[in-house]
Specification:
The structure holds two protein chains of two kinds. Chain A has helices at residues 2-29, 33-38, 44-53, 60-72, 86-121, 126-140, 143-157, 169-199, 202-210, 214-251, 257-266, 270-298, 300-305. Chain A is mainly α. Chain B has helices at 20-26, 34-52, 93-129, 131-146, 149-160, 164-173, 176-190, 194-201, 206-242, 254-261, 270-297. In chain B, 45% of the residues are buried. Chain B has a single domain (60-303), classed as MetI-like (MetI-like fold, Orthogonal Bundle). The chains are: A mainly alpha, B mainly alpha. Chain B: It holds the Pfam family BPD_transp_1.
Chain lengths: 306, 304
């Protein structure tokens, strides 16, 4: 197990290192990094000062070392728009994004699994076909188009829910649902086929004959095998929610990190974009690592094969 | 190569070594469901009208008429002059929708072509040469798979600014890793085939073996993947354009039309519904086509 954990950890670190290096290469390719960092409207003295501070007059390897050291120390520079550290600007927006991401994972669980189980238990009926068609369409649906249509229907036509930008629970429903379509549809399709796989097994009939309630039977016999896929889908849903936040938060005017990132990109506020993207990469890599480790934990065959 | 179980499993492992010719004969167009054929017809009409848009006699997609702002479509109080209504600058929505189809679908096609060519070549090389090159390419593939491409795109757009060349490079770079993985897996298997070994022992160069013997045998699953990838690229472009970071005005794309419409959701629902439905239609039809193609050509290729 130790070897398995170590190899996964090394891969995650290598991925992050490579991502940070790519940004450095991009910085060098885009011309004068100091000018790029400070933006087109920077005063020449400021550019000169940064050039000295980052050692840009020295050789590329030295510059790379300085850059890596800064990143390792959490120094991502000052935001160009606000006279504050990029890290502070981004951290302010984290809670709103985290809340949205977590609620979307919860929604995927609460809506996806029952829909799939229901479809399996009513296999071949109109309900089954209806649920599965909706899941199929939902999987291909562009997230932000769905978000815009939901606003039109529920906020402006029916006037049931706010169109976004609010912190109360009602304001969370539309953006979280939009973000969770990936998880809902994947979980619905998965739980349907998982239930169908076991429903005709002999041990299911035995369990039924013993008089166990159906819910208990499903839980007991689907348990371990289902856990693997469940962990994967939920982890991927979390990644999708973090990455999808950029667009979804703009659709719903949600004051989170995603909206900040798209605005900062438009304003070419490089330090903020760099740190925000670093955080996105960090969280997605961490989620992937967690999935891998949980996998090894749940299923010994996986950690032994590695 | 250590496989991360969170991603796609290796695809070529369980694939029976059926000759491709036999598979091709099994592909019958008549087996396509009626709904899908209907979808193709709609898509064909959309593409044809998009290409023909400048000669249809519609209003210029960029022409502004501030006196005719936010006019509703036909059936909701609109007139035949603007069948789909107008946007916040009084521009004709139908004509923008068709011009946008040209831009959005064209960019996605271009992006798919670039990533298909680049990814397949790198994957072929990795699978055929093995060794350090293989490890290096697969490492980059793993990195790109584990970081959302939108994040990479945001950094690039901040550094290099928004513009068509940057956008095209980004579209071409996104998704190449999918083809690389598939091409690598397929070429690993194909390079063990007798006819490849025979060609090599006769002294054929690597380039000749790859282009004449390996590539023709793995091209079908790569094209199926390209169909499935088309919608991801369409969505990437429209997401970026929606955020104001992709196709820049005055050029219309479905994404930047939706971005404009976002501010007029309450006043003029049609400015959102027209490009939204267009995106929806194309996504559904192309995805269904990809699934269907995958089922008829190769049941082993799996969607993410």
């Amino acid at each position: 197990m130790a070897r398995y954990v170590l190899s996964r950890l090394l891969r995650a670190l290598a991925t992050l290192w490579f991502a940070v290096t790519l940004v450095f290469i991009g910085l060098r390719l885009s011309g004068d990094p100091a000018a790029a960092l400070l933006g087109p409207e920077a005063r020449p003295e400021a550019v000169e000062a940064l050039r000295r501070a980052w050692g840009l007059d020295r050789s590329i390897p030295v510059q790379y070392a300085v850059y890596l050291t800064n990143v390792l120390q959490g120094d991502f520079g000052q935001s160009l728009r606000e006279q504050r550290a990029a890290t502070v600007v981004v951290h302010e927006r984290l809670p709103a994004t985290a809340r949205l991401a977590l609620v979307s994972v919860g929604m995927a669980l609460v809506l996806g699994i029952p829909a799939g189980v229901l479809a399996a238990l009513r296999r071949g009926t109109t309900l089954d076909r209806l649920l599965m068609s909706v899941a199929l369409i939902g999987q291909g649906l562009p997230n932000f188009v769905l978000g815009l249509f939901l606003i039109l229907l529920f906020a402006f036509h029916l006037r049931w829910l706010p169109s976004g930008g609010q912190h109360d629970l009602r304001g969370l429903i539309l953006p979280a649902f939009t973000l969770s379509t990936y998880g809902i549809t994947s979980l619905a399709r998965f739980s349907r086929s998982a239930v169908l796989d076991v429903i005709n097994q002999d041990y299911m009939r035995t369990a039924q004959a013993k008089g166990l309630p159906p819910s208990r039977i499903l839980l007991d016999h689907l348990g371990r095998n289902a856990a693997l896929t469940l962990v994967t889908v939920l982890g991927l849903q979390l990644s999708v929610a973090i990455a999808g936040a950029v667009v979804t938060e703009t659709v719903f005017a949600w004051p989170g990190m995603g909206r900040l990132l798209s605005q900062a990109t438009e304003q070419r506020d490089f330090p903020v974009v760099q740190y925000g993207v670093f955080l996105v990469a960090l969280s997605v890599v961490t989620v992937n690592l967690a999935i891998d480790l949980l996998y090894g934990f749940i299923d010994p065959r996986i950690r032994l094969a590695d | 190569m250590a496989q991360s179980l969170t991603r796609r499993r290796p695809v070529a492992r369980e694939r029976p070594a059926t000759p491709l010719v036999a598979q091709r004969q099994r592909t019958r167009w008549s087996t396509a469901p009626v709904l899908l054929i209907l979808g193709w017809a709609l898509l064909a009409v959309l593409v044809a009208l998009g290409v023909a848009q400048p000669w249809l006699g519609l209003a210029e997609p960029g022409a502004q008429h501030l006196t005719e702002r936010l006019q509703p479509p036909i059936g909701f109080g609109g007139t035949w002059e603007h069948p789909f209504g107008t946007d916040q600058l009084g521009r004709d929505l139908l004509s923008r929708l068709l011009a946008g189809a040209r831009v959005s679908l064209g960019l996605a096609t271009l992006g798919v072509t670039i990533s298909l060519v680049v990814g397949s070549m790198l994957g072929l090389l990795a699978g055929f040469r093995r060794g350090v090159l293989d490890h290096a390419i697969m490492f980059i593939v793993d990195v790109q798979l584990s970081i959302p491409f939108l994040a990479i795109a945001l950094v690039a757009l901040t550094l290099f600014g928004t513009g068509l060349p940057v956008l095209i490079v980004l579209l071409g770079l996104s998704g190449w890793e999918q083809y690389a993985r598939l091409a690598r897996a397929l070429s690993l298997r194909t390079s063990q085939e007798l006819y490849v070994i025979a060609a090599r022992s006769l002294g054929a160069s690597t380039a000749r073996v790859l282009s004449r013997h390996v590539l023709p045998n793995i091209v079908a699953p790569l094209l199926v993947l390209a169909t499935l990838q088309f919608t991801s690229l369409l969505l990437l472009e429209s997401s970026l354009s929606f955020l104001g970071l992709g196709v820049q005005p005055p050029t219309p794309s479905w994404g930047n039309m939706l971005g404009d419409a976002r501010n007029y959701l309450q006043l003029a629902w049609w400015t959102t519904v027209a490009p939204g439905l267009a995106l929806l239609l194309v996504t559904l039809v192309v995805n269904a086509t990809g699934d269907w193609l995958r089922d008829v050509t190769d049941p082993v290729l799996r969607r993410r």
